[in-house]
Amino acid sequence: DIQMTQSPSSLSASVGDRVTITCRASQSISSYLNWYQQKPGKAPKLLIYAASSLQSGVPSRFSGSGSGTDFTLTISSLQPEDFATYYCQQSYSTPIFTFGPGTKVDIK
Amino acid sequence: QVQLQQSGPGLVKPSQTLSLTCAISGDSVSSNSAAWNWIRQSPSRGLEWLGRTYYRSKWYNDYAVSVKSRITINPDTSKNQFSLQLNSVTPEDTAVYYCARVEIAAAGPYYYYYMDVWGKGTTVTVSS
Question: B114 in contact with A at a CB cutoff of 8 Å?
Answer without folding.
Answer: yes
